[in-house]
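Data availability excerpt. The first of two example chains:
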Amino acid sequence: MRHTGIVSQIAPCAAAPAAAQGAAQGAAPQGGWLARTIARIVPVVRRIIGVPDYDTYVRHMAVRHPSEAPLSERDFAEERMTAKYSKPGQRCC
């Protein structure tokens, strides 16, 4: 039996940063279990910290409100930040 060493066990994890970037952009998870796990965690963390997700918004508008034009990415970001910070008591600092 040939021993492959620790490098062969670590190499599949090299795809994790790419999977995290893909998850942040809404791409389908690929790769091993670590890449799939990161791809599932990244959108949750983004929602928790309040990062607006324009791609999700555009998909929602296409499915739920097809007759309405979605906001531009810049207008969407401005609207989300205004909504987030205009309410007293909504900030931690």
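And the second chain:
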Amino acid sequence: MTGPLLRPDARHSLRFQRDCRLLNAVAYRQVFECKPEPRKTTDRYWTILAAPNGGGSARLGLIMMKKRVKLAVKRNRLKRLTRESFRQHRHSLTGLDIIVMARQDAATADSQLLGKALLKHWQRLAKYSTPAASATLLPHG
């Protein structure tokens, strides 16, 4: 077998569970009204805001406005893509509450391009995250 091996409990930790989501208006407001201003990163497809959450794990909130992305099928596709990308990279975003907002061009872009754009955002935001409590990967040996 090649590559790193996941511990049995690590597979469970990669799921997009309830504690990895912003669940209510108060949680979203804390990011929007963060003092000092929340970290903002933007490109042609996404606007992303991030604020420290004081906790250990990263949390994600999604805003896919009907005004920007007309069809529900496209909004749902963008949400699935964003959740999956976040799930794969959240270990590098610990201690942040993140809100991802789709821009109009995201509706017509292909998934690979959107995934690459999200990766660039995660890499920018990782600079502001707190160190992970423990690694989820074991060295291959």
